[in-house]
Amino acid sequence: MKQYKLFLLILSISIALFGQKDNYSSFTDGNYIVDGLGVSKLEYERYKDNLDDGVFSQNYDLFGSVRSLYRNDVFDIHIDFDDVDEAGCSWGVSVAPADRYLSVYGITFQDGGANVIDECGNFGVSGHSSPKFLSHYETATPGDVNILFDEPVIRVQINAGKSVTITMTAYDENDNILDESSLQGTSELAPISVETDGIRKVVISGNGIYVLDDLMVQTQNLRGTFQGDYYSAHTDETLIPLGNAFPYSQSGTYTVIDGENGTLETPIEFPFPAISGDGEFLDFIIESDWHTKRPRDMEIFYTAPNGEETVVASWTHPDKYDPEGGCSEDLDDFLENGSHLDCSLATPSYSIGFFNSEISLSQSDSLTLRILSAWSEGGIILSEAWVISGDLCYETVSNSYLSFDGIDDYVEIPDHELLSSNGDDFSVLVKFNSTNISTDMGIVTKFHSVNYKDWGMIINGSELSLEFEHSGNNWRIDTSTILESNQDYAIGFSFNYQTKLIRVYINGVEIVSETLPVNDLSDTDVPLSIGKFGGPYNDRYFQGVIDDLTIWNSVVTSNEIQSHMNGSLTGQENGLVGLWKLNEGSGDMVYDMSGNGNDGTINGATWEELVQEEDCPGYGPSPEFGNFVFSRDDDMIAFDFDSDPVSG
């Protein structure tokens, strides 16, 4: 069911304009590594935004540890310990790894067992990555080597050696043994590994002296999300100036109704100019030349001939006070380094929106830029804009999904305070595809009894309905929207605790809104059920596929709804307190990727694989990302929008 479109930004800028650097993409800064090649911050950010959080890290700026340099189709974390500069040639200057890798990889080495030491200590081993490794010496580092993982992983491997028997044991979060393997060490290091679902700790043991190096980990949430090599296609750019296509909006021409979020009472819309040329829209870059008068949340929507609107890109322009820097020197600097400078009076700022649908350049007059919010009430300055165009092609390779039979299949997540409002804003988003929509059934519910239902989204006579109750007061929102079988839907609701307003969404469009007639949603101790009416009903099971359940302690924005529809949420978004992708592919658990640990148990539902193929012509060996083989040929088209600063 998943229709993720994970995007790879491979921009090709001409040598004359930006300069060429050997062995890297054409405007890399070299500080970011993707599968062994240096990429720019912009390229890196695009990878990171569209894959599960933690796939790629900013290598050499932190430790020099490698996440992507040795990335293959098995492991997505690689620690070689060569970043420990303070380690010396003797035990007197050896260094315990401890929590050195915690913030980047979520990996902790408990005290004792082994320290990082330099090979100049002459341990008489080979086959390690020079010059540093972990070494165990019973007198100096007594005890076993204990490696802890913040999130469950599915495979751990490390190279080990010396003339002793070395054992690796895997444990779950309750210290139950999951897997174990042993290795008779020699002077040449060899791999030892454990592999199973739900690993939270490995213990490495052995008597005497032994050496460890090159820790490799396959994380639970990244199963099957990355394969193949980075590939860059180089083509010439095309610059097309378009004048004042997007003029500025002066103070007084719009009203900010939410001071905290800058939400506009009436969004500002600018139609796209006509653009000639072949290819599809890939990205849209906007520049604002005034330090405070800049847009905030933006989107681009496509208007079909029948008048139906579809959001095809959404993003947020940086704040002047962004702690990482809200400005750049110029477009070249932005493409190289992203937004990284503190903003002065006239320092330009840039942002980029990634298209999630194939829209050709010839359809540009069907596109509209919409500004949803602003960083200031004093005006919005839009200076220049660019489109990056090219050939966009997706080939769906395979995807795991959880199938419910409509008889007795469901998933249950134990109760937690984050699964209800509890005096705070609250939102729930989920995707599904039912093979029999005419049957009454629960999609996601938290029902305690007939008179006490925290909240629930159900199908009632082919219609999406929501049910709430508080202190015995039954209340239902009927959307009056008839759904169809075998269709993908992204649905959800938001609850504003202050105003008591509940908004209901289907496929990103607000369908209905009503005010809760009581003070708050109920909060009982009942589990959350996926795929059935819960509580006393314990029936009306869902038939089909349920996907990407998210829970928020905030009122979701249009950008967050769009990110959910695109499948690009990582679990690290502000306000996101629960994320169940339901794509593990095996086992009887579904994992909460938000980091809050509210994992669920599968009861009867089965894992299946969806395989679809499409001829995808492109440049040479295409890289494979997650569920898509992606190849593209990039041009760059520039808009030139002259606008003068407005006073006020």
From TrEMBL:
This one is known as LamG-like jellyroll fold domain-containing protein
Q: Which organism is it from?
A: marine metagenome
